[in-house]
């Protein structure tokens, strides 16, 4: 019997042609990588990955990440063949509106998809996060012993985020990580030699990884043996698989033309001939279906065996129900004292850690500044995964990607701290958290020019507003001690969304506030600062966020003495406010009051939404300056005097 | 004579204590790194760096980048001592408002500062760009033979951007690059072992670098010899310098407490004692001043020698004066044909390349898709720096940082292409280009959900608006062939700003437009689509950008048939429009016309500025979907029908 006639070859070609057919039918997509990777995929699922398509949430399933998300047709084919809820009809709707088989894999949409991938490097970092999560869980539940597999491409390994994550994985010696590098020597612009001549294997050895070089992508035995070796090794493993992009296509294999477009009807036919494949498009030979059923049956047996032995009930509640109200009371508040909101955030985090086995996180080498260190816990290291504190190093982007992976893995609530300015470094990961509906927390301190002497290189101007633009991301900018606590409480309830806390470096007074429940609505009238005024009598509304709310309150005091009726509105979270009823919104910002001033130490673009045509926005549309924080703020117009003068001008106009 | 009494030791301690004194006086800053690096800085400037403080623009000066920008006190001290326009008074104003010695080095502000650094990893990438620029220049002007030096820190090397740039530097074998890695084993959170156990030397060897390990940071001879070796090596070099952070401080040296705050008066005194330094703060011993004068004299001699031999006049004009008008006529336009704006951009770039020896750039492995390849030129490689085309690989962030370096080096106009969604990956570099006032071009294609099947992972929603928030960045979103050309013309004139072009994947019709000069004003009335209507008669203004302008034009046609008087405004560049006179702005968007609808396939936040309280914004505040572009656009409300229905609703209200 020739190899072609073996069931293995048939399975591999089925994977190959399902992928080809999907792309061809959609007339859009990436056939090349699936064609080259089909043998690896088959071997990986047959011999190694433990899964149960009927219990996709099984805590000890092996995780598989297609970091090279453009090869999605491969993943969907595998999910179909191994019994997941992905039908041939779904495959035929590849890349069509409303289908569960979109252009790139989306977590939450398709059964069996473990991570949203496509933007390169992200999946690589996600896997590192999953590996950390798994090891942490295994401290308490030693039966957790699954692996994290990923297919990573040249592009994944060129991206900086993967370099960062690889260094962390090496430092933590994540031996549960097995990455297969699809080394096909082809990138979109041509040979990888154009831009990628480095010795990848040597680089990963330098990170502390176990590397297996030069595995022939068509050699099933070698592939399987390499994976077995990797499973037994006590380091993270990188398997360098030499594949041919577009394998089987007479005119396109080994070329960049196989990468990002359908092969074309003619070339598909030629490929069928070349691989001696006589089946109609989307046809899965009966014996192939049977064989995959057998494979899946074996997997389910393993699953049953594991679950019957391991009755561990893993709690899924992240928090006691009454944590929020308890905490506010329990925190050691001195109302006479000024706190920076970053300090309060640190107190809340530490309190949260007391009651929560799911909290995990850290900062990009700024724990002291971002107040993200949990004092009653230890640091995660290669020989201790029991702690809460992760040291990400100066690696914001992978911090974001790793935290997404931690959240994807199970029930963890990961947090990440850095300066607000460096949110830019991790923006692609923040966006993917929002798209994937992951609850992760971002703790962004040093939130304005108020940070002072570090100067414009470190002073955020556009970052706050820019975060507000990301769909499904809640951005909180609390003004004081109480607001910070309530913002955390609100964010804890948003289990389908990431939340960003934007916090001061400098201290701010504590407002003795009678209307704290308003914080949860995103914006509210600061009692007793103006709620007592009848709507018809209001001369002016001052809207402030964060540290600038205090300027509004001071300005209000002075304006009130002149007989003006001024309302102060605090707006810690735009998105929550936007979600309120029209009635509530109009109560806080009555349409008839057109004299409105917003005060926020960031870009003014966007504030027109709340201040209206007649309003004025005190903000900053230029870069900051290096000087003590108070001086920079004053020079840039964030002073009571400036608000007073603008108020007068506005009231005159 | 003990070492302490040598002039070398005195110079080194002068550098050390100037830095200590600056930080102490400001009571803010980073003393630790300068204290550890003082010997290296002295040796580097004395024996190696060629410079002339009186001709800071000298084309063949060695470039020095302090990628670890927080060590700015070190750089300012060196600039003072070597005769740059940085006085002791300037040093005393370290980190104060309006000084030329801000917290982190800022290009353009301080004589001798070659790059704005602080956000880690950026300087590393800048140097790679400078090295490319220098080598390209040397093809035409072989006398150009200077080096690029940088000090990089642990943090720099943890950041992904530096990993990306290092791989490119290795591939291109940039032998003019000499980086000194300040390996002090300390990061802010503690020992680097917490998070950075990799073998850095081995990693850089894997990239193709020449690595010199374990150089004692106090051993002047070894340091100088290593730099000499690096200069002679035909690879980029990394010198791993073992230093002690806070060297000399009895209680803080070798500890993270030496990193980010003033030592404190007492510790400064103890350090003075420990290093036997009896000079007052900011006092530079006479013999030290003399010695530095001698050093500088030698440098100026070298300068004179070089300049007298090399009479090469390097053109500084980037373009012929009449390039712009010429180009528009010269481009091979078929008005009957539809073009995508990315296609037009490609035509413009190729035309630009014909007349311009300063153009250089490429894409992050998307040349074919972003239309950024210059056909009549070659690819830059380790043995060819004559070409225009750089292959950055899938490395958006370093592409941004490298292009900043190219622009910093001399007169080059670098461009960078990728999908708009991946602008997020390079955002920190874009921001630094804006802060540093560098003219660089970003070519962001696939600019909306209109890109289609690749789905929400690749569809930008917030990116366009988010770019508009960055101060000093001009964002252009042209609607057709003509607008694209004029946007390029406008951007070419903005020599102190970066410009981003936001371009369609899909084709759009060519508008036979009578008012093209309006494009340069950022927004204009599309003739003859409504300019003929008297202001008082306008029922409705439709404002569109990019591909959505065409929906506005179609809607206007239909609405006009019902007797409504509709003006269509095209708004390719917000910032340019904002810079126009109030008169012009009011002419385009008359205050009295309150019925306004904006149509743009991106977030609506921000549009309130132009549509006003009564207006409506057709936009997208959620993620996209995977399907053919037209279908996604329609499903998300970007159809003539939807604009018509909203228009009717608005006119009724």
Describe this structure in words.
The structure is a homodimer of 653-residue chains. Helix content of chain A is 40%, strand content 13%. Chain A starts with 6 loop residues before the first helix and ends with a helix. The first copy, chain A, is α/β, with parallel strands linked by helices and 653 residues long. In chain A, 61% of the residues are buried. Chain A contains 24 helices and 20 strands. In chain A, helix 18 links the parallel strand 13 (474-476) and strand 14 (499-502). The mean pLDDT of chain A is 94.
CATH superfamily of the largest domain in chain A: Thiamin diphosphate (ThDP)-binding fold, Pyr/PP domains
Number of domains of chain A: 3
Radius of gyration of chain A from CA coordinates:
28 Å
CATH architecture of the largest domain in chain A: 3-Layer(aba) Sandwich
What's the arrangement of secondary structure elements?
2 copies of one chain form a homodimer.
Chain A: H1 7-26, H2 32-48, E1 63-66, H3 72-81, H4 88-92, H5 122-140, E2 148-153, H6 154-158, H7 160-171, E3 177-183, E4 186-187, E5 190-191, H8 200-207, E6 210-216, H9 220-232, E7 237-242, H10 265-274, H11 286-309, H12 323-330, E8 339-340, H13 341-354, E9 359-363, H14 367-370, E10 389-391, H15 396-409, E11 413-419, H16 427-435, E12 441-445, H17 463-468, E13 474-476, H18 481-493, E14 499-502, E15 507-508, E16 524-525, E17 540-544, H19 548-561, E18 566-570, H20 574-578, H21 582-588, E19 596-599, H22 608-611, E20 616-618, H23 629-635, H24 640-652
Parallel strand pairs in A: 1-2, 2-3, 3-7, 6-7, 9-10, 9-11, 11-12, 12-14, 13-14, 17-18, 17-19, 19-20
Antiparallel strand pairs in A: 4-5, 8-15, 16-18
Helix pairs in contact in A: 1-2, 1-3, 1-11, 2-3, 2-9, 5-7, 5-15, 7-15, 12-18, 13-18, 15-16, 19-24
């Amino acid at each position: 019997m020739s190899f072609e006639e073996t069931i293995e070859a048939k399975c591999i070609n089925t994977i190959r042609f399902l992928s080809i057919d999907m792309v061809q039918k959609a007339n859009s997509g990436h056939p090349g990588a699936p064609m080259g990777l089909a043998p690896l995929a088959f071997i990986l699922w047959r011999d190694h990955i433990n899964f149960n398509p009927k219990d996709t949430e099984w805590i000890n399933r092996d995780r598989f990440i297609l970091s090279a998300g453009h090869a999605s047709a491969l993943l969907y084919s595998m999910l179909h063949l191994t019994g997941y809820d992905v039908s041939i009809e779904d495959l035929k709707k590849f890349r069509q509106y409303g289908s569960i088989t979109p252009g790139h894999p989306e977590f939450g949409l398709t059964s069996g998809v473990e991570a949203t991938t496509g933007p390169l490097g992200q999946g690589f970092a996600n896997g590192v996060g999953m590996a950390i999560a798994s090891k942490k869980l295994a401290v308490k539940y030693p039966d957790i012993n699954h692996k994290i597999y990923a297919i990573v491409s040249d592009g994944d390994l060129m991206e900086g985020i993967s370099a960062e994550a690889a260094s962390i994985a090496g430092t933590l010696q994540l031996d549960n990580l097995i990455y297969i590098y699809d080394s096909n020597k082809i990138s979109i612009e041509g040979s990888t030699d154009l831009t990628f001549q480095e010795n990848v294997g040597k680089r990963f050895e330098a990170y502390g990884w176990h590397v297996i070089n030069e595995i022939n992508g068509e050699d099933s035995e070698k592939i399987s043996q390499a994976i077995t070796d990797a499973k037994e090794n006590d380091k993270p493993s990188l398997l360098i698989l030499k594949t041919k992009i577009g394998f089987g296509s007479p005119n396109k294999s080994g070329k960049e033309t196989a990468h990002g477009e359908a092969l074309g009807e003619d070339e598909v036919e030629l490929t069928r001939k070349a691989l001696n494949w006589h089946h109609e498009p989307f046809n899965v030979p009966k014996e192939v279906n049977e064989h995959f059923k057998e494979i899946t049956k074996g997997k389910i047996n393993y699953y049953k065996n594991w679950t019957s032995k391991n009755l561990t009930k893993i709690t899924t509640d992240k928090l006691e129900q009454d944590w929020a109200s308890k905490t506010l009371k329990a925190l050691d508040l001195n109302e006479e004292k000024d706190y920076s909101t970053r300090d309060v955030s640190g107190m809340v985090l530490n309190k949260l850690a007391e009651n929560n086995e799911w909290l995990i996180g850290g900062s990009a080498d700024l724990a002291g500044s971002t107040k993200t260190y949990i004092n009653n816990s230890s640091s995660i290291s290669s020989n201790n995964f029991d702690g809460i504190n992760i040291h990400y190093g100066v690696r914001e982007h992978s911090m974001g990607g790793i935290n997404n992976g931690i959240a994807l893995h199970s029930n963890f609530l990961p947090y990440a701290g850095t300066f607000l300015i460096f949110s830019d470094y991790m923006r692609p990961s923040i966006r993917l958290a929002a798209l994937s509906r992951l609850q992760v927390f971002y703790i962004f301190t040093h939130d304005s020019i108020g940070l002072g002497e570090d100067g414009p290189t470190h002073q955020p101007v556009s970052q706050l507003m820019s975060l507000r633009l990301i769909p499904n991301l809640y951005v909180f900018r609390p003004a004081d001690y109480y607001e910070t606590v309530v913002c955390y409480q609100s964010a804890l309830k948003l289990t389908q969304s990431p939340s960003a806390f934007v916090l001061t470096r400098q201290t701010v007074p504590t407002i003795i506030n009678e209307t704290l429940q308003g914080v949860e609505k995103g914006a509210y009238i600061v009692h007793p600062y103006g709620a007592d005024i009848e709507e018809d009598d209001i001369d002016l509304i001052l809207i402030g966020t964060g540290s600038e709310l205090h300027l509004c309150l001071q300005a209000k005091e002075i304006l009130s003495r002149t007989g003006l009726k001024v309302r102060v509105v605090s707006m810690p979270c735009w998105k929550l406010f936007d979600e309120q009823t029209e009635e509530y919104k109009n109560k806080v910002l009555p349409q008839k009051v057109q004299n409105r001033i917003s005060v926020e130490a960031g870009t003014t673009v966007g504030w027109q939404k709340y201040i209206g045509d007649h309003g004025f926005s005190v903000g900053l549309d230029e870069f900051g300056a290096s000087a003590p924080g108070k001086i920079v703020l004053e020079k840039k117009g964030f002073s009571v005097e400036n608000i007073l003068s603008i108020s007068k001008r506005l009231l005159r106009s």
